[in-house]
User: What shape does this take?
Amino acid sequence: MKFFIDTANLDQIREAEALGVLDGVTTNPSLMAKEGITGEKNIIQHYVDICELVEGDVSAEVIAVDFEGMVKEGEALAALHPQIVVKIPMIEEGIKALKYFSDAGIKTNCTLVFSTGQALLAAKAGATYVSPFIGRLDDNSTDGLELIEDIRLVYDNYAYETEILAASVRHTMHIVNCAKIGADVMTGPLSAIKGLLNHPLTDIGLAKFLADHKKGN
Ligand code: G3P
Assistant: This one.
């Protein structure tokens, strides 16, 4: 499973990259605003800065909600850097834009996906990635992981190449469960990724090894 980090924070991206297990970055307008990145020029520069920090795909979201606007913005974003993936919302105009970019050989990430039917449409339109938001479903008493399972089933039935990118991942067990049910990618915060390191028996075991080594010397 590929690991993407879901942030626009350059320090956190650097830290995840230094671990050596990072495959890409996802951003969205809220994450950019959270880092205080505003204004078109700064936002564009920030995407380039992120691309220069990592080796993999970097999702950059369009703001337009009409087909022509999404195409114009998406083409400009894609021209910024070869690692840019154009993030398109799951709306009617977005489906048309996904098909346009797929035909043009530009990578896309279909965002704000909350149902299997939406994921089926995104795959048919040729999206590179589909982003079901599992944490936001969990917030609404709906099992986000069940959606990942259902999309996996449908995509496997027809060998769709669209990759399932589990998004709105909030904690470490989301990552583990996404891996168990076959999500292709997960995007989550650094805390959830680093949480995979934790086990008290590892800490206890290491402390004992080091203490025993000291005794013998
Ligand atoms: O990747 C989508 C993500 O940014 C949404 O996460 O935690 O705002 O639901 P969250």
About this structure: The radius of gyration is 19 Å.
